[in-house]
Amino acid sequence: MVELKTPGEIEAMRAAGAVVGEALATVRAHAGIGVSLQDLDDVAAEVLRAAGATSPFLGYHPDWAPSPFPGVVCASVGDAVVHGIPGGYRLRDGDLVSIDCGAVLDGWCGDAAVSFTVGTADREALALIAATEEALARGIAAAVPGNRLGDIGAAIGGYVRSCGYGMLADHGGHGIGRRMHEDPHVPNEGRAGRGMRLRPGLVLAVEPMLHAGGGDAYRHDPDGWTLRTADGSRAAHCEHTVAITEDGPVVLTSR
């Protein structure tokens, strides 16, 4: 069931989103050569703690997962697209890193992700990240009252395919509110003018996930969580929580 949020509830979600934005900015500032993914998880956890927020990721255990998620961020490096478990891996020069983070504050959720490089960045990694950020921007721009879910997917997918990149199959964005994952599913590819009509009060997590190699296939790590590109190419993931309002889309996960 799709739930529309009141203006007051959207403001409460903006507060949760600001915690997410702060956590992601702080993690990015701390990321560097030799820093472990666990270190970055600890940094995000402290931001949430200081804000009086909790993590919707920590202990999350969907039916398909073999165990509860053990971190407050998903930390995905290189060919890992999403759901990377933060552990002992230490960042290396040139690594492409995607960090996904959520927060729950006063019962409301925020969810966002950023991708960046560590140390010396190569041109291909920067181009992939830039394309992912642009795809996100185009998806957000399409999230206006009167449009349909297919318009968001068409805006994202049309751009990504024109760049020659692939997208993580079977995955997309989602509704968000008091729960991290709510209806509706938000596709990263679709036909303009198709799907559910967008109405003020709808809050969505828009999140393109790009594969540098051009394919969409993925494989699971033995940990049951991490998804990697099937061809071993690098991936990038960017996300914002976005409210649809009478005045257009409003990003709720800015710092």
TrEMBL record:
<dbReference type="InterPro" id="IPR001714">
    <property type="entry name" value="Pept_M24_MAP"/>
</dbReference>
<feature type="binding site">
    <location>
        <position position="239"/>
    </location>
    <ligand>
        <name>a divalent metal cation 2</name>
    </ligand>
</feature>
<keyword id="KW-0031">Aminopeptidase</keyword>
<protein>
    <recommendedName>
        <fullName>Methionine aminopeptidase</fullName>
        <ecNumber>3.4.11.18</ecNumber>
    </recommendedName>
</protein>
<keyword id="KW-0645">Protease</keyword>
<dbReference type="InterPro" id="IPR000994">
    <property type="entry name" value="Pept_M24"/>
</dbReference>
<dbReference type="GO" id="GO:0004239">
    <property type="term" value="F:initiator methionyl aminopeptidase activity"/>
</dbReference>
<comment type="function">
    <text>Removes the N-terminal methionine from nascent proteins. The N-terminal methionine is often cleaved when the second residue in the primary sequence is small and uncharged (Met-Ala-, Cys, Gly, Pro, Ser, Thr, or Val). Requires deformylation of the N(alpha)-formylated initiator methionine before it can be hydrolyzed.</text>
</comment>
<feature type="binding site">
    <location>
        <position position="207"/>
    </location>
    <ligand>
        <name>a divalent metal cation 2</name>
    </ligand>
</feature>
<keyword id="KW-0378">Hydrolase</keyword>
<feature type="binding site">
    <location>
        <position position="100"/>
    </location>
    <ligand>
        <name>a divalent metal cation 1</name>
    </ligand>
</feature>
<dbReference type="InterPro" id="IPR002467">
    <property type="entry name" value="Pept_M24A_MAP1"/>
</dbReference>
<feature type="binding site">
    <location>
        <position position="111"/>
    </location>
    <ligand>
        <name>a divalent metal cation 2</name>
    </ligand>
</feature>
<feature type="binding site">
    <location>
        <position position="181"/>
    </location>
    <ligand>
        <name>substrate</name>
    </ligand>
</feature>
<feature type="binding site">
    <location>
        <position position="111"/>
    </location>
    <ligand>
        <name>a divalent metal cation 1</name>
    </ligand>
</feature>
<feature type="domain" description="Peptidase M24">
    <location>
        <begin position="11"/>
        <end position="246"/>
    </location>
</feature>
<comment type="similarity">
    <text>Belongs to the peptidase M24A family. Methionine aminopeptidase type 1 subfamily.</text>
</comment>
<feature type="binding site">
    <location>
        <position position="174"/>
    </location>
    <ligand>
        <name>a divalent metal cation 2</name>
    </ligand>
</feature>
<comment type="subunit">
    <text>Monomer.</text>
</comment>
<keyword id="KW-0479">Metal-binding</keyword>
<dbReference type="InterPro" id="IPR036005">
    <property type="entry name" value="Creatinase/aminopeptidase-like"/>
</dbReference>
<dbReference type="Pfam" id="PF00557">
    <property type="entry name" value="Peptidase_M24"/>
</dbReference>
<feature type="binding site">
    <location>
        <position position="239"/>
    </location>
    <ligand>
        <name>a divalent metal cation 1</name>
    </ligand>
</feature>
<feature type="binding site">
    <location>
        <position position="83"/>
    </location>
    <ligand>
        <name>substrate</name>
    </ligand>
</feature>
